């Protein structure tokens, strides 16, 4: 089934003329004819889970917002920064009106009058396309005061970010949208109660909102029949890394991962095999080639100890060292940590330093234990999950590829001419090491 | 065994952390609009941005983007001008400008080439391309090459964003070509630009199509 990608490459789909010819904005009319409660019920019936990474049911989130006459906000999270993810980019670039329609329907369902799209600053071209599309929609009377005579008004603003991974985290995004540094906030209160400008705020990923018109076309109950009972619908998955045909693929949730990686993306490059893969962006615990038959949906992947996150599969083949992959991942999170919470700020930096020690031949296998314990101390101890996003993949690499990392440590020690591991005296054991610990 | 760590001014282990501020001076207040000349186009851009949000401070990022476009970087002068229009302190804007990767806190060459060196791109040789790009840019001097975190185009890995235009997959030879195209002021590596790429999904009838320019979209970032 192709729902999100239906005719996505049609020339001119980014203009309102072609979009309307294909039945665009009809679902907005249909939604406006319903009561807001019926519209929310439709979303709840669909059981669609958020496509941004956390997988929280969208209808439930929307129903958390208080009722009544107050300033409420809808924020579309288009700060797609999770390494390996590029689905929103393609959707926004080729079919921006579907996203706008989804936003408008959602604002009606939740009775919101102000909506923002926070797009990452690097997506300049996609932002230009969206801006043009918003202008077209305004001109056609879909956005603005009293749209289509329903009495409902929406002001939609496109906001360009300026390059910060942390702004994809919902509360960091809110701070950034308020014009501050993008530091995450303490939760609770959750954004649904107190978010942007202290008002109740609904935050959804691009793909989630883009799916809303499709849900209204099929009907929530009908949509829920797609996929698996707990992961309904179709999803765009970005496959990248060492595969024959990297790209975005629309799948029904619950197909075997092998089908996605081999049949759609063409499998690993000629003459190589998969060493490890990330099922949901670089923040997800890694899987090995033995895990290829796990169904690709939220719950199956969670049961297997990982997550589908934003739906970004990164394939690493046998030509790469686990150490290099771990270093790349750790370096990224160390750079992107906003520095607000100590476990994340220090933990990411120390993990980078420990991986550098392995490479320079100063490490012993004990460093792997320390590294694993550092990861354990990050998880769950920060305001947001950026630290966890490093800790989960690094922890899983240490666990699943310990033999390789130990061999790496020994080889590096030999290269550096360091003492053999058997001869290393643990700190605090021999007399000359007694006393205060050395300061590095 | 005690290892001595080098210490810098004020006992810090990190050099230069206090360079940005002169602690002997009183903190800067909101600049006086009467004595801070602001180019008209910048003032208009900032005021338009402020009008779009319920809170004017939300315009900080769009305003800094606009100032950087005119000044080339977030210079003290640029920050003062934005502060004067937005009625906030320069320190507030500096805190914002230093947080985000796309704001330059020192003068940079006018062309930006961001090479993605994150995981998916580096698996396909982005680190080598980055080195080739740095070497090619060195002689030209007009290109600001930066290795960037995931730019969200892993399907065309290894890729780069040249003045905001995405292109890939890049071979090491393309580095020189990018520099040449920029110098000749022509579209950069047009055949490798992302905008012409069809979706990879075999279920979609695919052909290579450029998006149609709508009536309102005359000002794209070309």
Write the layout of secondary structure elements.
The complex is a heterodimer of chains A (440) and B (222).
Chain A: H1 16-21, H2 26-33, H3 36-46, H4 58-64, E1 73-78, H5 87-94, H6 96-110, E2 114-119, H7 124-139, E3 155-160, H8 170-177, E4 201-205, H9 206-218, H10 220-223, E5 234-241, E6 247-252, H11 257-264, E7 274-278, E8 287-288, H12 298-303, E9 312-317, H13 322-336, H14 342-360, H15 365-378, H16 386-400, H17 402-416
Parallel strand pairs in A: 1-2, 1-4, 2-3, 5-9
Antiparallel strand pairs in A: 5-6, 7-8, 7-9
Chain B: H1 40-51, H2 60-71, H3 76-86, H4 90-97, E1 111-116, H5 119-123, H6 126-140, E2 143-148, E3 160-162, E4 165-167, H7 174-183
Write a short abstract of this structure.
The complex is a heterodimer of chains A (440) and B (222). With 440 residues, chain A is an alpha/beta fold.
Report strand order across the widest sheet of chain B: 2-1-3-4
Q: Which radius of gyration of chain A do the C-alpha atoms yield?
A: 24 Å
Q: Reading side by side through the largest sheet of chain A, how are the strands ordered?
A: 6-5-9-7-8
Distance between the termini of chain A: 57 Å
The largest interface is: A-B, 88 and 68 residues
Instruction: Specify the number of helices of chain B.
Output: 7
Largest sheet of chain B: 4 strands, mixed
The proportion of strand residues of chain A reads 5-15%
Shape of chain B: globular
Q: From N to C, what is the helix and strand string of chain B?
A: HHHHEHHEEEH
């Amino acid at each position: 089934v192709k729902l999100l990608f239906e005719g996505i490459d049609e020339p001119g789909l980014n203009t309102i003329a072609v979009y309307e010819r294909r039945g665009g904005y009809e679902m907005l009319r249909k939604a406006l004819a319903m009561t807001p409660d019926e519209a929310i019920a439709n979303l709840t019936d669909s059981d669609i889970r958020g496509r941004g990474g956390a997988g929280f049911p969208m209808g439930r989130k929307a129903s958390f917002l208080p009722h009544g006459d107050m300033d409420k906000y809808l924020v579309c999270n288009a700060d797609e920064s999770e390494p390996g993810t590029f689905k929103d980019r393609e959707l926004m670039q080729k079919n921006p009106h579907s996203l706008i329609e989804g936003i408008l329907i959602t604002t009606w369902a939740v009775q919101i009058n102000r909506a923002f799209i926070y797009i990452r600053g690097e997506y300049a071209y996609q932002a230009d396309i969206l801006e043009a599309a918003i202008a077209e929609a305004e001109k056609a009377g879909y956005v603005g005061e009293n749209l289509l005579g329903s009495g409902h008004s929406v002001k939609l603003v496109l906001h360009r970010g300026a390059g910060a991974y942390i702004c994809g985290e919902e509360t960091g995004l809110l701070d950034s949208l308020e014009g501050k540094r993008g530091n995450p906030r303490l939760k609770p209160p959750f954004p649904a109660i107190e978010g942007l400008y202290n008002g109740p705020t609904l935050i959804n990923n691009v793909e989630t909102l883009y799916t809303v018109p499709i849900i209204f076309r099929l009907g929530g109950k009908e949509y829920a029949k797609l996929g698996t009972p707990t992961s309904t619908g179709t999803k765009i998955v970005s496959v990248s890394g060492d595969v024959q045909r990297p790209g975005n693929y629309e799948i029904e949730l619950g197909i075997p991962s092998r089908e996605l990686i081999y049949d759609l993306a063409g499998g690993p490059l000629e003459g190589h095999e998969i060493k490890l893969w990330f099922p949901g962006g670089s923040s997800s615990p890694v899987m090995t080639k033995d895990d290829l038959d796990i169904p690709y949906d939220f719950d199956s992947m969670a049961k297997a100890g990982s997550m589908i996150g934003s739906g970004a599969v990164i394939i690493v083949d046998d030509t790469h060292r686990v150490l290099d992959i771990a270093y790349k991942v750790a370096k990224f999170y160390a750079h992107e940590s906003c520095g607000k919470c100590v476990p994340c700020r220090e933990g990411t930096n120390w993990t980078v330093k420990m991986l550098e020690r392995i490479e320079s031949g100063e490490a012993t296998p004990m460093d792997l234990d320390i590294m694993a314990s550092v990861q354990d101390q990050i998880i769950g101890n920060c305001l947001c999950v950026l630290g966890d996003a490093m800790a989960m993949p690094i922890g899983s690499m240490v666990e699943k590829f310990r033999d390789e990392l130990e061999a790496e440590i020994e080889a590096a020690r030999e290269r550096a001419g360091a003492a053999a591991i058997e001869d290393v005296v643990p700190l605090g054991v021999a007399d000359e090491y007694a006393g205060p610990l050395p300061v590095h | 065994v005690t290892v001595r760590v080098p210490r810098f001014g004020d006992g810090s282990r990190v050099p230069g952390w206090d360079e940005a501020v002169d602690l002997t001076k009183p903190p800067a207040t909101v600049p006086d609009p009467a004595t801070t000349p602001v180019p008209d186009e910048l003032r208009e851009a900032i005021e338009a941005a402020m009008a779009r949000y319920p809170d004017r401070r939300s315009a900080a990022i769009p305003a800094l983007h606009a100032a950087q476009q005119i000044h080339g970087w977030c210079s003290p002068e640029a920050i003062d001008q934005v502060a004067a229009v937005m009625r906030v302190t320069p320190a507030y804007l500096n805190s914002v400008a230093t947080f985000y990767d796309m704001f330059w806190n020192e003068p940079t060459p006018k062309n930006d080439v961001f090479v993605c060196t994150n995981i998916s791109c580096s698996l396909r040789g982005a680190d080598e391309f980055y080195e080739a790009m740095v070497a090619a840019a060195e002689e030209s001097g007009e290109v600001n090459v930066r290795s960037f975190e995931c730019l969200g185009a892993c399907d065309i890995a290894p890729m780069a964003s040249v003045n905001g235009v995405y292109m890939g997959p890049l071979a090491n030879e393309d580095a020189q070509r990018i520099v040449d195209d920029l110098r000749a002021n022509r579209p950069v590596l047009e055949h490798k630009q992302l905008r012409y790429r069809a979706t990879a999904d075999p279920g979609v009838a695919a052909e290579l199509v450029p998006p149609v320019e709508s009536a309102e979209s005359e000002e794209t970032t070309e």
